Amino acid sequence: MRVKRAKKNKKNMALYSQLFGFREPYQLLLDGNFIHVANLMKMDTWTAIPKVLQGQVKPFTTTCVLSELRALGEDFSATVKAAQQLERRRCNHTTPIGATECLKSIIGTDNKHKYGVASQDNDLRVHLRTIPGTPLLYIMNSVLLLEPPSKETQNRIAQIELEKTLPKKFEEKVIKKLNPNVKVAAEPTRTFKKKPKGPNPLSVKRKKTTKPGTSASKSENVKTGEKRKRDSDDDD
């Protein structure tokens, strides 16, 4: 079972890395109930988590998680000490809120910061399954488990794989030339911002430089020509 589980974990983390951009050390958010259960079971979580995620891991918690643990009383004092050893991820909550809502706000709608979440809160994990590309860990029967990719994650993977098979725009032109009747699936459009362009230096007319004395000589010639015409008219 351990070998099969390790192979599945390796395959799943490869998907997260290749298709969703996860990189080592993997960032993992731990909530209070996960830390508490790990403490009660005396699990060596700092050794188990890298083995499950098949790589180096950087565990985090938040100020909201710590404040929630402190509010639970002396029974959770050991859990508070364990949580204090973790690096805190800034959650931007000046007034502490519930740990579940805090972690939801950090993950957001697209998990752009590439976090995994370790939690015993089933409701939280149900919510996070709706966000593609979010690895989820939990403890069951003293065993640390990595959930398989959710349906939303699998749908996203299928969409990414489909986009890879679609022809590019330059390929569409070639296909249409070879067979105009073929309908080609459109490639997702990408928008680029146009930068302001300066004037074309070749199209700009250069200013003509007049040599000193040329304009004056031309004007004198015109005047002398006019006088000569008038003088010839008077003689007639």
Description:
With 236 residues, the protein is of the alpha/beta class. Helices cover 50% and strands 11% of the residues. It has ten helices and six strands; from the N terminus they run αβααβααβαβαββααα. A six-stranded mixed β-sheet has the order 3-2-1-4-5-6. α7 (122-128) links the parallel β4 (115-118) and β5. α2 (32-40) packs across α5 and α4 packs antiparallel against α5 (77-84). The N and C termini lie far apart (128 Å).
Strand order, largest beta sheet: 3-2-1-4-5-6
N- to C-terminal separation? 128 Å
N-to-C order of helices and strands:
HEHHEHHEHEHEEHHH
Query: What proportion of the residues is helical, as a percent range?
Result: 40-55%
Identify the overall geometry. elongated
> Oligomeric status of the shown chains?
single chain
Number of strands: 6
Mean pLDDT: 83
Measured on Cα atoms, how large is the radius of gyration?
A: 37 Å
Structural class of the secondary elements?
Answer: alpha/beta
Q: How would a crystallographer describe the biggest sheet?
A: 6 strands, mixed
The DSSP helix count reads 10
Topology:
Blueprint (H helix, E strand, L loop, with lengths): L1 H19 L5 E5 L1 H9 L4 H9 L3 E5 L1 H9 L5 H8 L2 E2 L10 H9 L7 E4 L3 H7 L7 E5 L2 E4 L4 H15 L3 H10 L35 H22 L1
Parallel strand pairs: 1-2, 1-4, 2-3, 4-5
Antiparallel strand pairs: 5-6
Helix pairs in contact: 2-5, 4-5
Q: Which tags fit this structure?
A:
single chain; 236 residues; alpha/beta; elongated
